[in-house]
Amino acid sequence: MKFHNAGKFNGDIESLPKREHEEGAVMFKEPTDMKKFSLYMNIGAFILMFLLIGLTSLIVGEFTFDTWGCLLAIVCMVPHEFLHALGFKGDVYMYSNLKQGTMFVVGPEDMSKSRFITMSLLPFFILGIIPYTIFLFNPNLVTLGTMGAISIASCAGDLYNVFNAITQMPKGSRTYLCGMNSYWYMPKKEGKEEVKETAK
Predict the structure, then answer these.
(1) What was the pLDDT predicted at 200?
(2) Rounded to whole angstroms, how far apart are CA atoms 82 and 87?
């Protein structure tokens, strides 16, 4: 993995890393309007956070929204993206826009369906599920529970990407990012005759 801090993202999608499309590549069926997509993901994140904070409050026995847990979840925005970056083997670029509360990583390499799903879910499990599960076993750790709940909710976009990969990518296909859009394609296979010739 070769990490690059690409600096502030000014909203220009054309400035993001691109690559030549693979033959027969199919763009994921996902919103192409980034403002509309961000709105949908924010709504999804809010609903998820509301449900998890509600569950946290039921477990504790009173409404609770721990301030330190909230601050920890905000601080986790940076390690969240670094965890995504670990899923890449080649160049990966991190962009940020603190005024808009935006931070993301992109990389033009292709990857298998399973690696794409693992890369997408790393922050979900490490920063969200694990802390929240610890809280479930020890309800006194409200700070950890709040941090986990918010971190899980912040993964709404990642969960959406995983859903797309599971429902749209055929078995054996590979995926890659070009700009802000994901594509999948079927890699070419060697012909039987060519394989036999190589074996000789």
Answers:
(1) 42
(2) 9
